[in-house]
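sry for the spam today, last one i promise. struct tokens for design, 430 residues
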């Protein structure tokens, strides 16, 4: 018994001896969580809090937990605090502030140890180092977060895997497929971002990513198992780019039928950056189920012929009609569908191929500008403003000169004044 008691005493003394190391670890955690070195006063406050808790006869483990809670409840953790200069002039952000801007832009998280070191030392303020770190981060698997947080959010597809608005009686397979549909979109954009793909592949890609379940849904043969595979040559099978993805086609459909209006409006506003006026009051609601003897297209055409509605529908409905070969969960219909339509400029297009050609050749500049606007706004964490127009023009010019490669747009942003400087406290946008 004496030996057991002695060993217990040794263990308790060892635990007591390690308590300061635990406090040191909390301080080091705060250093990372707050994305900068703690001031002497901040470190002293954390240590004092722990000591006060222990003096109040709170156990060591609980005192550590409460001290950690203090770190995580601090504005230094919850907000990316930056110090603006006095007056209206913009001033450079510090090295660690720039590191945080870059990391949250590309990784949606705090800087890793290498980026933190470059920020703390001030090396990141160099153009060359900033370029090198940007390239390193884009090649990292954490760029997947940019695919989710930027691309899927911009395209209104984020959390599509939680979509539960389909009629289960008509589409019982949707619940099992929605996760795979979402993963296809995420992997597509992750691949584009990590491998410096062309942003035009959003429209004209001839590849996609599928597992066996999604490949079967798309009618693509030769894919087995749950592993994800890149499949090339998919345009011939009605896929390729966002227009052929089930996430877009299903999210912009109703519970029981397709919606050319929703799909057309998504293309008009989300891809092209156009805006429609608010619909007039008392617009009649379309039925969820297509009436007997009508197609979804005929139902929409009847609705859109109302004079109060026609001026908007003539702009958006043709885009949706071109995609009527796909059902409400993105499958190709077994029977032929009427996909020939005339745009508001008088141009005739037919199906996804005609729509893709129109967007790539007639509206390419609009698609590129919209992409640049959304990426810039995401990177800066604010609305794009009038003063950003020269940067947007520069981004578009550089993309055009470099085969529209994604890294060119990112580099233009991170090297810009907007990304590397902070406006003064008294700045007011004209």
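last one done:
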């Amino acid at each position: 018994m004496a030996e057991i008691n002695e060993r217990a005493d040794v263990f308790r003394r060892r635990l007591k001896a390690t308590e300061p190391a635990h406090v040191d670890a909390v301080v080091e955690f705060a250093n990372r969580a707050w994305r900068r070195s703690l001031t002497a006063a901040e470190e002293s406050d954390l240590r004092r809090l722990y000591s006060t808790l222990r003096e109040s006869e709170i156990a060591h483990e609980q005192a550590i937990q409460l001290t950690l809670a203090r770190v995580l409840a601090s504005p230094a953790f919850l907000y990316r605090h930056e110090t603006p200069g006095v007056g209206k002039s913009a001033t450079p952000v510090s090295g660690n502030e720039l590191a945080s801007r870059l990391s949250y832009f590309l990784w949606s998280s705090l800087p890793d140890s290498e980026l933190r070191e470059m920020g703390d030392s001030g090396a990141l303020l160099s153009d060359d180092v900033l370029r090198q770190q940007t390239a390193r981060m884009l090649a990292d698997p954490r760029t997947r977060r940019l695919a989710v947080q930027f691309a899927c959010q911009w395209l209104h597809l984020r959390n599509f895997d939680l979509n539960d608005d389909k009629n289960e009686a008509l589409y019982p397979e949707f619940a099992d497929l929605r996760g795979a549909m979402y993963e296809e979109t995420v992997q597509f954009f992750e691949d584009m971002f990590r491998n410096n793909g062309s942003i035009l592949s959003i429209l004209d890609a001839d590849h996609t990513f599928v597992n066996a379940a999604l490949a079967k849904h798309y009618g693509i043969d030769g894919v087995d198992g749950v592993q994800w595979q890149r499949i090339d040559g998919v345009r011939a099978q009605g896929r390729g780019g966002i227009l052929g993805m089930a996430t877009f086609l299903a999210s912009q459909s109703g519970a029981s039928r397709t919606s050319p209006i929703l799909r057309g409006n998504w293309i008009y506003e989300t891809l092209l950056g156009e805006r429609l006026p608010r619909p007039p009051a008392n617009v009649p609601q379309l039925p969820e189920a297509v009436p007997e003897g009508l197609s979804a297209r005929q139902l929409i055409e009847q609705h859109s012929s109302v004079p109060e509605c026609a001026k908007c529908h003539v702009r958006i409905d043709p885009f949706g009609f071109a995609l009527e070969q796909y059902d409400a969960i993105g499958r190709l219909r077994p029977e032929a569908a009427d996909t020939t339509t005339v745009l508001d400029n008088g141009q005739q297009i037919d199906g996804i191929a005609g729509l893709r050609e129109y967007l790539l050749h007639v509206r390419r500049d609009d698609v590129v500008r919209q992409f640049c606007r959304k990426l810039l706004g995401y990177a800066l964490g604010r609305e794009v403003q009038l003063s950003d127009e020269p940067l947007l023009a520069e981004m578009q010019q550089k993309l055009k000169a470099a085969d529209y490669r994604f890294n060119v747009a990112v580099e233009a942003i991170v090297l810009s004044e907007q990304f590397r400087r902070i406006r003064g406290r008294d700045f007011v946008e004209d």
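The chain has a mean pLDDT of 90. ok im logging off now
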